[in-house]
Each structure stands twice: as structure tokens, then as C-alpha cells.
Q: What sequence folds into this?
């Protein structure tokens, strides 16, 4: 990618070509979405009849004329699979209805950008080649009615520093109200640039990594889609579209704000959700859109007994010593060391006492600050959900976030945080694809986690002291069930208990199975 990458990066970094079948499906969806903008009664069956040549000749020609009025763009052409397939589709549609798109029309209405001269060689062999610009799309000034593509998948740390600053400045000027992170991967700049370059009512269909759905740097994309565009559909196969370690989604967006529903697609199903249930940009969209059923989305959006965790707790980060081998000991030492909590594995039960200590941390002549909090939220978790009650206020490592309740007593707070409701929220909004099947919530996700606004909970005595088991055993524990039903009843959700537990078990099963595969 020429001077866009650091010197040590492979020249083909980020280049992943799209399968023809995927390109065909994306083009078909983009054309349908653009045509249906003009006519809300334009059904999928009518479109299928048009696409397959079953309409009356005059009707088909009228639609062809409409397609010829649009401009088409691929911002990262590569070998040209999108443009070649688009031209083939146009030729086929016109042939169905006794027409032929002219060479001049193809060259003037279908445009592709790429910086790799070698990659686009195959396009020159086309009998009617499109307009190819050997130029960086991110530096261009262009607009289109339909934009379809597969942006390069380049992590931000592989981008040349000067180039990264250049594209950040250019794209930031296009979206002055957005806070675009300089830690954004390259494809994020492509998304934001294509959204800017859409004509009114235009359609953008991109196959992109799914990291924007959850990451901090993806918040700007979630925000602009929420406030300024209509999301037509998001498709997630829950597999990799390519033979590389990249999980992808196909995003289709329309440049208008007459928004009703969003189609969410995966391998097994298609569901439509009201735009009013689109989650806040701060929350994980992959969890909200792909893992959360409609009945629960409605609760998360409208239940008055829920609030964000940051409204109920102050959140602090743990100790970072820089060298745990140097500053931790595995046996008690008098003087300059004191008991600490180093890992979630240190505790079998919710309550952690000083007598349970497995690690002692140096507390004198140190460069770090000892951190303490009454409640410890694990950064990573495996197959049990346990939030630690730090009964003796011991210093804690950065493997936890420290929580201090502001509106309730510690015991009630610990109870709520260890409930199956909070466990379910972690499974829905936590980040997956971690080693060993683990799941995590970084601080920005933890802040916005939906928490019940309760102040007092009656807790069975056994709950805090007994070991917290693997999920297959833990979810059947009677004391847990008593707590869960009490919390749901206080929220007016007692009728959802069985559905909630079934969903939680299903999510845990899928995460476990994925870790084995």
C-alpha cells in the first residue's frame, strides 16, 4: 500500500479480496435498497421478478432507466470483483428487457479507486471497463448514489505516522461534530468518508470488520449512524467471510432520516427491530443487535428501574506495578508487604477476607499507588460470574475494576452485581473473541452497563460465603434463584424470569462451544 504503511509492514497488508458470491449479494441489496427509497411499496418479490426478467418489458425498462441515473463507486477496488459483478448485473438486467448499457455510460457512471496498479490490471481486459482512478480514495473529492466495497483491513499501528495524521485530519474536517479516535483502524476512515460522499438518499454497502460495533474507536461510527443516517441492515454470519482471522459484518446504510426499522441478519434468521430500540453508541452493538432478543431490547430501552452502572458506582482501576514478580510475594512477609488481591482466581466465593490472601504486595518505596475499593469487578471472566466483596478493603491488582456504591449499601450492591441479571448483561455486552473463550468489559463498556435501580435486597446467608460454581451448576442454585426473582419482581419483570434464564444458558453454551471449536 505504498507509503501508507510503516516500513516493516508487508506491502499486501490489509488486502483481502471478496468472494464473487458475496459481492453479488451486496450489489443486489444495494440496488434494491436504492430503488425502494423511491417507492416504499417496492417489495422484495417485485424486485426478484425484476432481477430475474419476469416483469413486463416497459416496467423493466423504466427501472433500468432509473438505475442508469445513479452513479456507482467502489472506494477500494482491488482486483475489481465489485465493479465487474456490477457491470455484469447491469448488462443482464438490460438484456432481460431488450436493452444494452452503453460503453460511455459504464465509464461515466461506474468508478473505482485503488492505489495498487497491479491489482486492477484485470479490469483493463473488460470489454466495457469502468472509470478507474489510481489514487487514494481517502484523499479524493467525489460523490455517488451507490457505494459498495471492501475497505482494507489495516490496524492503526501499521499505518505510516504521517499518513495516519493526514487522513485523520481530512476525515475529521468532514465530520467536525464527531470525535474520531487516532487509534482508529484504516477501515473506520473509509466508512466515515463513504458516508460523507453519499448523495441524498444514497446507499452505502460495505463488508467490514465487526470491531466497530464494540470498540472505543468505533463509537464515532455508531454515533453518526444513530444521529444522521438510516441503517438498512447489518448482517453477521458469526463466521469469517474470508480465510483470515477477521470477523466481518455487511453494513447497508441510507442517507436519509426517515427511519422505521433495522434488519438484523445472521445465518439462521432475519429480525427487524424498531429504530427506537437502537442502543446508545456507548454500548456494544454486537451484543445489542445480534444477541439481544426484541423483548429484552424493549426492556433495556424503556424500563424505568434501570440505569447506567456509572450512575450507581464510582469506578477505579487497579494497581499496575510494572513488574509483579518483583513486587508480589506468595508468602506473608512482615514490614514492607501487605495482603492484596492479585487475581479473580484468588477467591472461590464472593466474600474475600484477609485470611484468604494468596499474594502479598510491597507497600513501601514503590512507584505505584495502592488502590482499594469495597467491590471488585473482574476485568476478564471465564465460565462463572463472580464480583468480589473486598470485605477487608485490601489493595487490588489491575485485573479488577474497583466499584464504590453511591446510592446503596455494599451488601445490596454486591448482591445485585452478582445476580443473573448482571451476568446476562455481561454476556450480551461483553467483548468476545478472547483467548480461552473469555469475555470482558473494558471501563467504557462497564460504565454504561444496565443496572437495576434498587437500594435494598434480602440475601440468603449462604450466597456470599459459598463457592461460586461453573455456570452449568451455578445457574440452578436455589439461593441465586431467590435473589434473581426478587430483583426481577422489583423491576416489574417477574414474568420474564424463565426467558431470561433460558437466554443466559443459551449464551453460555454458545460461548463454551465456540471456545472448543
A:
Amino acid at each position: 500500500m505504498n507509503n501508507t504503511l510503516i516500513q516493516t509492514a508487508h506491502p499486501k497488508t490489509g488486502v483481502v479480496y471478496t468472494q464473487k458470491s458475496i459481492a453479488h449479494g451486496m450489489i443486489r441489496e444495494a440496488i434494491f435498497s436504492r430503488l425502494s427509497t423511491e417507492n416504499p411499496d417496492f417489495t422484495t418479490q417485485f424486485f426478484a421478478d425484476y432481477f430475474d426478467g419476469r416483469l413486463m418489458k416497459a416496467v423493466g425498462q423504466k427501472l433500468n432507466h432509473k438505475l442508469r441515473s445513479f452513479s456507482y463507486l467502489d472506494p477500494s477496488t482491488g482486483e475489481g470483483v465489485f465493479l465487474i459483478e456490477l457491470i455484469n448485473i447491469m448488462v443482464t438486467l438490460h438484456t432481460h428487457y431488450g436493452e444494452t448499457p452503453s460503453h460511455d455510460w459504464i465509464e461515466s457512471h461506474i468508478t473505482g479507486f485503488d492505489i495498487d496498479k497491479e491489482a486492477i490490471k484485470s479490469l483493463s481486459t473488460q470489454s466495457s471497463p469502468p472509470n478507474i482512478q489510481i489514487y487514494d480514495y481517502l484523499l479524493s473529492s467525489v460523490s455517488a448514489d451507490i457505494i459498495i466495497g471492501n475497505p482494507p483491513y489495516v490496524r492503526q499501528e501499521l499505518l505510516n505516522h504521517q499518513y495516519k495524521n493526514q487522513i485523520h485530519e481530512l476525515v475529521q474536517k468532514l465530520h467536525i461534530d464527531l470525535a474520531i479516535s487516532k487509534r482508529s483502524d484504516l477501515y473506520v476512515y473509509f466508512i466515515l468518508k463513504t458516508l460523507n460522499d453519499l448523495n441524498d438518499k444514497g446507499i452505502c454497502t460495505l463488508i467490514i470488520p465487526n470491531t466497530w460495533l464494540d470498540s472505543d474507536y468505533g463509537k464515532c461510527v455508531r454515533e453518526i449512524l444513530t444521529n444522521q443516517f438510516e441503517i438498512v441492515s447489518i448482517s453477521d454470519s458469526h463466521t469469517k467471510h474470508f480465510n483470515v482471522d477477521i470477523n466481518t459484518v455487511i453494513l447497508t446504510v441510507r442517507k436519509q432520516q426517515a427511519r422505521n426499522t433495522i434488519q438484523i441478519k445472521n445465518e439462521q434468521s432475519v429480525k427487524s427491530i424498531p429504530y427506537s430500540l437502537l442502543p446508545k453508541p456507548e454500548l456494544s452493538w454486537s451484543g445489542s443487535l445480534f444477541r439481544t432478543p426484541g423483548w429484552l431490547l424493549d426492556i433495556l430501552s424503556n424500563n424505568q428501574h434501570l440505569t447506567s452502572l456509572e450512575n450507581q458506582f464510582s469506578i477505579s482501576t487497579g494497581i499496575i506495578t510494572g513488574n509483579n514478580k518483583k513486587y508480589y510475594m506468595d508468602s506473608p512477609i512482615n514490614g514492607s508487604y501487605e495482603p492484596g488481591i492479585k487475581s479473580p482466581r484468588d477467591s472461590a466465593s464472593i466474600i474475600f477476607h484477609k485470611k484468604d490472601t494468596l499474594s502479598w504486595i510491597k507497600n513501601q518505596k514503590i512507584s505505584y499507588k495502592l488502590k482499594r475499593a469495597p467491590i471488585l469487578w473482574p476485568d476478564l471472566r471465564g465460565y462463572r460470574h463472580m464480583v468480589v466483596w473486598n470485605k477487608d478493603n485490601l489493595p487490588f491488582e489491575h485485573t479488577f475494576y474497583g466499584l464504590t456504591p453511591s446510592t446503596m449499601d455494599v451488601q445490596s450492591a454486591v448482591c445485585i452485581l452478582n445476580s443473573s441479571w448482571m451476568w446476562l448483561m455481561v454476556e450480551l455486552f461483553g467483548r468476545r473473541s478472547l483467548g480461552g473463550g473469555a469475555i470482558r468489559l473494558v471501563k467504557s463498556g462497564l460504565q454504561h452497563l444496565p443496572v437495576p435501580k434498587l437500594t435494598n435486597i434480602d440475601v440468603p446467608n449462604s450466597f456470599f460465603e459459598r463457592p461460586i460454581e461453573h455456570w452449568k451448576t451455578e445457574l440452578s442454585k436455589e439461593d441465586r434463584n431467590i435473589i434473581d426473582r426478587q430483583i426481577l419482581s422489583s423491576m416489574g419483570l417477574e414474568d420474564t424470569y424463565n426467558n431470561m434464564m433460558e437466554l443466559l444458558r443459551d449464551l453460555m453454551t454458545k460461548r463454551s462451544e465456540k471456545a472448543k471449536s
